[in-house]
Amino acid sequence: MSKTRILTAFFLSVLLLSACQTAGNNVNRTAPSANEIPDRKWWKEAVIYQIYPRSFKDTNGDGVGDLKGIIEKLDYIKSLGIDAVWINPIYASPNKDNGYDISDYENIMQEFGTMQDFDVMLKGFHDRQIKVFMDLVVNHCSDEHRWFLEAKKSRDNPYYNYFHWWAKEKGEPPKRWSHFDEKADAWQFNEATNSYYLHYFGDFQPDLNWENPKVREEIYKMMRFWLDKGVDGFRMDALAYISKDPNFPPMPESYNGRWSMFYADGPKLHDYIQEMNREVLSKYDVATVAEAAGDVERVMKFVDPTRKELNMAYYFEATDLGYLPNEFKMPDPNGVNLVDLKKIYSKWNKAFEERGWGTTYLANHDQPRITTRWGNDSPEFREISSKMLTTFILTMPGTAFYYFGDELGMTNIKFDKIEDYNDIEVKTNYAQVREKGGDLVRFLEGMKISARDNGRTPMQWNSTANAGFSNGNPWLKVNPNFDKINVETAEKDENSPLNYFRKVIKLRKSDERLVYGKFAVVDDNNPDVFAYTRELNGKKILVLLNFKAKESNSNTGVDLGKTKVLLGNYPEASKDGKLKPFEAVIYQLEE
Ligand code: GLC
Ligand code: CA
User: Fold this and answer.
1) Domain enclosing residue 371, as ranges
2) pLDDT of amino acid 38
């Protein structure tokens, strides 16, 4: 054999051998390879940044954020590296529940601007490859909506049946509870029709009657209006509540008084959502996220793809942790039990690994600031704990929802007086405690941790008056810590929570394990450290998060000395499992 032929044979056999090895790997492999990931979707890979428009940026000095303000900040939003925004309701509204009481679904709230502003904003996002989710609020509308103004005139009005009524001659209406009513009574009497209308939220938020096919058709038409404009998705507010048995039977004993769970299980709920899918959603490239109360089995119904309903589930079990039972959002003095939190995420993510798709979030406009509630807002730990929580949200399974201002490590404002609050929810609950002769001081202390307005204070852009949010008088007080905590200052600091947020997003975007990787909690019973792996193709990432303001030990059985640190929130990441207060580390495990 000539020398060349020997060499060729040698190379050929090497090639053959490595081909066999690859094949062997294929046989043994448990996780799918990157290009085998079933059912890739943009919305699974997206990081969604939530904008509360009222508090984002005011451009005309009336103290209320507006669409022009969002337009002004498009480049900032783009700079974060996010893929989509969810904007809270911007439709015409008397604003008694800050836009969740809609008086015209196809117009823009005057305070926020015009339809033209909307079109410019939408284009601005799309030009920057950012998708836009609108808030769809269709369980109820405003009592100033044209439909209700008509309906309340007389029983023969064609709009009367757009709402749920209980005729006076039938006697007292069956017990129904309301979220935003001092007497917690969901029936409100109306003279002209001699009947009571139903409102699961405030008495200014009458529930729409989904039993009426005309109502459903109006809603679908309205959804098409926005989709035809180019909107990319809907976050569906209180959607689980839409179906009601018009006979209003008593709540079954099995609910154990949990009326909100009872409301979320109406008889035709899924028929309606499937109809909405057939009539509207299936005809567009649109992503949907359901605000869905209930246990895994129930919530799964919204997002099991074989049922053809919605895409993502936004569930509450995790964010409901850490409160005392049978009281309105009173923080448990023992704080959040981390072991319970891990159990919750294990349970839900196990279910979503089989079917459907979940979300991970810790904050939104109904929640306080993450740094105060889940971290520690003292000067010593504010930044580090906020970075740890950012790591958590962006390395967990499911689509990541991130609330504006959390990228700065903004904190709860902690109002001392009820007069400082704007929110209907906290005011209603305050009135209820007062009515019962309860401890109002204790109530207000609790609200410093949990009230919704803590997360609604204006965005802190710089250290000028009103944090650069407005030249006027802001609709809700600006957190006085804006002189230190603001975008301008954070931009200049390479290690700020803002720049850390950008880094974690970049990592998530560059590593599919953080989106499609299998999730497993390790060191389950550790009360201080949340540790988990994300695995794809047999390759693992390990995330260690110290949720405590003290040094904590993790025990994962992994030799951290042999890992590569992908990112951490301290300059020097732990290599022995001993974690500094609120330390967060993302490791790449040895292959
Ligand atoms: C949802 C919204 C909340 C609103 C309520 C009534 O829970 O997130 O802000 O108050 O529905 O629409
Ligand atoms: Ca304004």
Assistant:
1) 42-137+316-505
2) 77
